[in-house]
Amino acid sequence: AGAIDYTVQRWEIATGKKTSLAGHDNWVRALGFSPDGGTLYSGAYDGRWIAWDITSETPTAIRVVQAHSGWLRGLAVSHDGQQIATCGNDKRVKVWSANDGQLLREMGGHPNIPYCLQFVPNTYDLVSGDIVGNIHQWRGDDGTLVRNLTATEIFHHIGDIAPFGGIIHLSFSPDGRKLTACGLHKCSNAPAGNRRAVALSFDWNTGEKR
């Protein structure tokens, strides 16, 4: 688990033993595991992602990458563990080598901040969702924008001030045939917390909103 105390906490399920991992300088926003479970990746509002040797008695940082200017919002690990994808307040989506932390691809095109992203199952293609309800699909080999799915129901504009809500998570169904986005909508008073949660599902092949 990651939280606003800047740390990642690891629990052993059988014993409840807790170990603290300190390395970020701001709130920890996102976590992801390598397929073999040996490496944990954490992303935080300090704009960095960190790779941890999570199986050791005292986990240490294997690699620290300064990924974004401003907050890092989302992080995902590819199906084979070879690539790490991140997005942040600089409105950029970036793909990194898990082996050496080198930047492989960088994509711009979101009109506002992308909050989350996921790899398309068993590929290097990506989907990313932003605060104003856009879901972009990016081609894995060259970062080309393939299509945009619109989920503007997960969006609200507070007068002339700022967008509110947005897509905060994306998830594929186990068979890869459905993509679901979730977030907040129908906001009547953002500071008071008057808003509703919503999830929208798309047919992945056709892009049809289900």
Entry summary:
The protein is mainly β. It is built from no helices and 19 strands.
Q: Profile the largest sheet.
A: 4 strands, antiparallel
Helical residue percent?
under 10%
Main sheet strand line-up: 3-4-5-6
Shape: globular
Give a structural overview.
With 210 residues, the chain is mainly β. 0% of the residues lie in helices and 54% in strands. The protein has no helices and 19 strands. The chain has a four-stranded antiparallel β-sheet, with no helix packed on it. A four-stranded antiparallel β-sheet has the order 7-8-9-10, with no helix packed on it. The mean pLDDT is 92.
Layout of SSEs?
Elements: E1 7-11, E2 18-22, E3 28-33, E4 39-44, E5 48-53, E6 61-66, E7 72-77, E8 83-88, E9 93-97, E10 103-107, E11 114-119, E12 126-130, E13 134-138, E14 145-150, E15 156-158, E16 162-164, E17 166-172, E18 178-189, E19 194-203
Antiparallel strand pairs: 1-2, 3-4, 4-5, 5-6, 7-8, 8-9, 9-10, 11-12, 12-13, 13-14, 15-16, 17-18, 18-19
Which keywords apply here?
210 residues; mainly beta; four-stranded antiparallel β-sheet; 19 strands; globular
